[in-house]
Amino acid sequence: MKRFKKVLALVLAGVLALAMLTACDGTTDPDKVIPDVDTANVVDTVNHMAADSKEGLGQVYYSAKYSEITKELLNNWLENREKSVTYAEEYQKIVAKMGGNAKVVVGLTDKNVIPGLTSGNPAVKGSAKYDVLFKDTSAYNLADRIGVAFVKTKNGTVYQLVCLFDVN
Questions:
Q1: What's the structural domain count of the chain?
Q2: Over the stretch 80-110, which tens digit does the pLDDT of each residue have?
Q3: 141 domain-assigned
Q4: What's the pLDDT tens digit per position in 35-46?
Q5: Which residues form the signal peptide (predicted)?
Q6: Which of 1, 18, 56, 64 has its CA 20 to 30 A from that of 168?
């Protein structure tokens, strides 16, 4: 009987060890996987600027889902920025896809539906001014997700857009 208990304990220890090794498969939430170094740099820069601000603003978390929406907004801006009615109609269609519980709070919002390049967001890659994201700290404080998009135009210019989303 004593020998049986020892063997049973050894078998149970082995089963527990295997269960511990197989319990975690290393997958992560695909919505939080940052696709490239440029996107990671933007997210890090925005979060560092927020933390270093005199208001000590909070962190925003990358979202692949909201980056896709940001990319659609940037494409709409690139294609229709000279046609205000078309731009506004397409903008409304894009943001409607988010559902009622999410909204763009900083970036291409309905408040600045036709921004110029002077704002720095959207901008030619490398000339983006992230400080425009912090102009209205009350809007920034509503944000909990960040979307980052890069679009290369036919002439080779790469534009980027950063939008902050309130998804609560």
A1: 1
A2: 888 888 888 998 899 888 877 788 888 777 6
A3: yes
A4: 889 999 999 999
A5: 1-23
A6: 56
